[in-house]
Design brief:
298 residues, alpha/beta, 8-stranded parallel beta barrel, two-stranded parallel sheet, 50% helix, globular, binds 1,3-dihydroxyacetonephosphate
Length: 298
Amino acid sequence: MRARLDELVTAALQRGAAVPAFTCYDFTTATAVVEAAEETGLPVILNVAPKTAATRAGQRLIAALRGLADGASVPVCVQLDHASDLAVIVESVRSGADCVLADGSSLGFEENIALVREVRAALDADGGPAHSDAMDADGGPAVVLEAELGGLAGDEDKAFALDSDVQAAGLTDPAQVRDFAERSGAQLLAVAIGNVHGKYKGAPQIRWDVLERISAVANVPLVLHGASGIPADELLKARTLGVGKVNFNTELRTAILAALEAETAAHRADGENLQGLLGRWSATAREFAAATLRTLGE
Ligand code: 13P
């Protein structure tokens, strides 16, 4: 069923929970994630990577994910992740994305604010997708915008291990948080607190002092990217400090690739059984998503 990302995450925080977001490059994974959400009775977010969304196939995937979300028995959001290209953003919302990470984190503070506002203006000018009308009942903007303040290191689609000095670069400045959220109009805020996309060399060095200072001033729910490799007890601690959305990509890919490596030969021998292999892919994604949903959501 449809849900507004900001409302979903706020409601989760109010009951002491957080909502995971999983990057889905394909329909098999997305279906498995939604099945995991239905199995656990918990809401979930399907993330689409910007490189995926920049292709025609990616736009069709967004439309398919929209259908999947609408047909689910639990709230599901379809989010365009880390986007800065206005044309891709508008097209993705037309295709069915109901939330966007308007990512100006590589820009200066004022330029980052300007980008988020520009995205909002572009979506307003486009009229918004028909499907989002029903989500606008309280007069708020139909398409929910997340923004990122500070800069997260690492590749979003390829996992490389990053040193602690890279993790420590580009931290969110707590003094800028409130001003940024108010002036940009962002409804959720992704923070850089030592988290990175990909893998951590050694244990992640999360800057709890920075998150505590952000949490003390933030007036929107916080988002933790780069959750792969961060121990569960630390994710739960982040939850108590206003982190209501937690993004996973690498760990899901690792699990799927390991399953494919282990099972491909047997399915090849079993009459080139691609259906069987996809079943293993699906079961692996579903198990990972269900375990993560339970950790964060219960
Ligand atoms: P990981 O690949 O490190 O899990 O990060 C995912 C993410 O933050 C997607 O936005």
